[in-house]
C-alpha cells in the first residue's frame, strides 16, 4: 500500500465575499494548491470535491465537473456531500483511490458560498443537515441542537459557560497571525459570556460564523512524489469515517459522539498510532462545546475532562497539546464544504513549519484532524505525519 | 484484487408517489436488496448513496446517515452527487472499497423524490445539473440542451425524428412486463412524432418522465459471498468514470460524449473485455437522442450508426444487441439519484435469468450499464458478468 503524500495546499481567505461564486473561490484554492505542489493541471487524474449547500446558495448542483473546469483540470470529478464533513469525506475517498493504485495524483478540496444568503437564510440552509421531518420542522436549527448537547454535557460531567468561553478566546488568539482567518482579532472571556445569547448556554461568540471560502490539497502517491522530486514531507497515514443516527432524539447520548469515536479509532488503527502520539489537533468547533466533544472522541482527553482543557491552558498554543492553531471554525471561519480539507491544509503547514503558528509545535511529528457533519451523524478523522 | 459480487438487488416501483418521502422509498429498496441477498443489516459495513435534488425537493441534505438509519444500517454513510449519475458514481466508489479490501459487504443505491415539485418545479430543479451561470440563467433547461445535441447529430450524421421515435417505441415495449416500470404500455411511432413538441426535434415521448423511486444493491467481496454461501452469480468486473466540461458552449462537439467514451474505455480495460463482448446494455436514455450517443460511446455502434439501430431492429428485444430491456429511463422512469444503481439492478436480474425480459438474453454473459450526469459532463460505465 502506497504512502499518500500531501504535495500542496491552497486556501482562500475565509470570510464574507458574497460577490464571489463558488467556482471563483475554488479556482483560487485549487490553483494555489497545484502551485504549492509544483504539479501541473495535466497531471491531475481526478477531483474529489466537497460542497454542501450549492443547490440552495447558488442554484448549482453537479459541481464536480464545474469545479474541475474552474481549475483547468480535465479529469473525472465527483462531489461528496456529508453536511459540514463534505470535504473530509472527499479526502477519505481520495486517499483510498491513491492507496489502491488507481490514481497517482488527485486534487481534493471543497468550497462554499454562504454569506450571499444572509445570516437567517444561511441558518435555514444549514438546517438541511439535520432531520428535516423530525427536527427542522419542529423548529430545530444547529445552535439549538448544540445547546442541547452542551446542557447535557454540563449536566453529566460539569463545566460552565466560562469553560466554553476559554475555547473561543483561545481560538481567536490563534487566528490573529493567520491571514486566511475570518477574524484576526482577540476576544476576552467577558466578551464571550456577555455576548447576546443564541441558544442557552451558547452565545454569539460560542458560535462559528457564516463564511465563504475554499480549500484544496494535491495528494500524490509516494512513487509520484519521489519520481518528480516533490517537496512533500507530510503524509496522510490514517483515515477513518463514522456514522450515527441523524436525529438527536434517536440517540442514547447527547454529550458523546459515537460517530467520531468510531472514526478516530479507525484512523488511529489505520495509522498505527494512538491518541498518546498526537502532538497537535485541528477539530470541528462549529460551537465551543463541539471542540470538547471532538477532543474526547479523539481520546486526547478522558470523557468529562475536555471541558476544562482550554481554561486550564492545556490546549492553548503554549499548552501541551495545541488544538485549533488555525483559529478553528470559530475564528478562522466555516465555509462548510471547504472546512474538512482546510483542516488538513492547516495541519500540513503546521507540520511542514511554514504556518504562522508553527513555532508552537516545533518538533511535532503527528497531527490529527476531526471533521463532523450535522450533530456528528457523520465524522471523519485523519492522521498526518511528517518526516523529520 | 477481489471479485465484486452483486449479492442482492432492490427496486421500488418507479412512478409518481409524491406522498412518499425519500427515506420511505430507500428503506423499501434497501430492505428488498438485503432480503434478496440473504444478508443481515448488521453485516453492512458502509452505505454509498446517490441523491441529486434532496435539498430542493425535500429540504434535506446530509442524506447519507439518514438513509442508513432508514434501512437500519449502523455504518458510515456517504452521499454522492453527480447529477443524474449520482448512484452510478456511488457504485464506482463502492466497488473500489471492496477491491481495496477495506469492506466486505456494502449497500449502495440511491433515491429521488421529484413529483411533489410538479413538472415545472422538477424541470427547474433538474436544471441545476447544468451551468447555472452561463446556461440556466440564459433560459436553458435539459430538453433544450438535448435538442441542441440531437440537431447537431442530425446535421453531422443524418437521421430523423422517426429514428428517434423507434427508440421510444422499443423502450416502451420493453417496459410492459416490468412491474417496476412507470409506463407499462406500448406506444406507436405515430404517438411519438405527433406528440406535443418539447424542444425541436424532441417531443413529449422523446423525453423521460419525472419520477419518484429508489434502487439498492448489496455488493460483497468474493470471499464473503463464498463463505456465506450466497447465491451471487453476477460480478462487477469493470468500472470507469469520465468527466467533461460542464457547459455545452465550451465543448468541441455537441453530438459526441467524450466523458462516456472515457468511462467506457476505462471500464472495458478494467474488465478485460471489449465492446464486441457485450451481449446486452442498459444506457442513459433521458431523451431518445441520449441512447444513440450512449451506444456510440460504448462502441456498440460506430459513430453515426447508432441512430438507426432501433429503427433497424438491432437493439429491440429480439435484436442482436438488446438495449434497455428494463424500459430505460424513457419508460421505466428516471428518479434521478436512483437511476445509476437501478441500471445495475436490472442488469443483474437480466443476467441471473429472473427478469421478465431475461428470455431475450438467454446465454448472455456480459452486460454493460451507462449512466450520465447533465449533458454527459459526468459519465459512469460498469461491466457486469455472470457465471455460466
UniProtKB/TrEMBL annotation, chains A, B:
Recorded hits in SUPFAM superfamilies, A to Z, give:
Thiolase-like (SSF53901)
One biological process term from GO is: isoprenoid biosynthetic process
- Which UniProt keywords are listed? Isoprene biosynthesis, Transferase
InterPro entries from the xrefs? Thiolase, Thiolase-like, Thiolase_C_2, Thiolase_N
Has the keyword Magnesium been applied to this entry?
no
Q: Which Gene3D superfamilies match?
A: 3.40.47.10
Entry GO MF terms: acyltransferase activity, transferring groups other than amino-acyl groups
Domain (Thiolase N-terminal) ranges? 12-222
* Claim: Transferase is one of the keywords in the record: yes
Pfam families hit by this protein:
Thiolase_C_1, Thiolase_N
**Residue stretches making up the Thiolase C-terminal domain:** 243-385
Can you say what this protein is called?
A: Acetyl-CoA C-acetyltransferase
Report the source organism.
Haloarchaeobius iranensis
Amino acid at each position: 500500500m502506497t504512502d499518500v503524500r500531501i504535495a500542496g495546499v491552497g486556501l482562500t481567505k475565509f470570510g464574507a465575499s458574497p460577490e464571489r461564486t463558488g467556482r471563483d473561490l475554488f479556482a483560487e484554492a485549487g490553483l494555489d494548491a497545484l502551485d504549492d505542489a509544483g504539479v501541473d493541471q495535466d497531471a491531475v487524474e481526478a477531483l474529489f470535491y466537497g460542497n454542501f449547500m450549492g443547490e440552495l446558495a447558488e442554484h448549482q448542483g453537479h459541481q464536480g465537473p464545474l469545479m474541475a473546469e474552474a481549475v483547468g483540470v480535465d479529469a473525472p470529478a465527483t462531489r461528496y456531500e456529508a453536511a459540514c464533513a463534505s470535504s473530509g469525506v472527499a479526502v477519505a475517498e481520495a486517499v483510498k483511490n491513491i492507496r489502491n493504485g488507481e490514481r497517482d495524483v488527485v486534487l481534493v478540496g471543497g468550497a462554499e458560498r454562504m454569506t450571499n444568503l444572509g445570516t437567517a437564510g444561511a441558518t435555514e440552509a444549514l438546517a438541511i443537515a439535520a432531520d428535516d421531518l423530525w427536527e427542522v420542522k419542529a423548529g430545530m436549527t444547529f445552535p439549538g441542537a448544540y445547546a442541547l448537547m452542551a446542557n447535557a454535557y454540563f449536566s453529566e460531567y460539569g463545566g460552565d459557560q466560562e469553560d466554553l468561553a476559554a475555547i473561543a478566546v483561545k481560538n481567536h488568539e490563534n487566528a490573529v497571525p493567520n491571514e486566511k482567518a475570518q477574524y484576526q482579532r482577540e476576544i476576552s472571556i467577558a466578551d464571550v459570556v456577555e455576548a447576546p445569547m443564541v441558544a442557552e448556554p451558547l452565545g454569539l461568540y460560542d458560535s462559528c460564523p457564516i463564511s465563504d471560502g475554499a480549500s484544496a490539497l494535491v495528494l500524490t502517491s509516494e512513487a509520484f512524489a519521489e519520481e518528480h522530486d516533490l517537496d512533500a514531507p507530510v503524509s496522510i497515514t490514517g483515515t477513518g469515517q463514522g456514522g450515527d443516527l441523524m436525529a438527536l432524539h434517536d440517540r442514547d447520548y447527547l454529550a458523546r459522539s459515537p460517530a467520531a469515536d468510531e472514526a478516530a479509532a479507525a484512523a488511529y488503527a489505520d495509522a498505527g498510532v494512538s491518541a498518546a502520539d498526537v502532538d497537535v489537533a485541528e477539530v470541528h468547533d462549529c460551537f465551543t462545546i463541539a471542540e470538547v466533544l471532538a477532543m474526547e472522541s479523539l481520546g486526547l482527553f478522558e470523557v468529562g475532562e475536555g471541558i476544562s482543557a482550554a481554561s486550564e491552558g492545556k490546549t492553548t498554543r503554549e499548552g501541551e497539546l495545541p488544538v485549533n492553531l488555525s483559529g478553528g471554525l470559530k475564528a478562522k471561519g466555516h465555509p462548510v464544504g471547504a472546512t474538512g480539507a482546510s483542516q488538513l491544509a492547516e495541519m500540513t503547514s503546521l507540520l511542514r513549519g511554514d504556518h504562522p503558528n508553527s513555532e508552537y509545535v516545533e518538533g511535532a511529528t503527528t497531527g490529527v484532524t476531526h471533521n463532523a457533519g450535522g450533530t456528528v451523524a457523520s465524522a471523519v478523522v485523519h492522521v498526518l505525519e511528517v518526516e523529520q
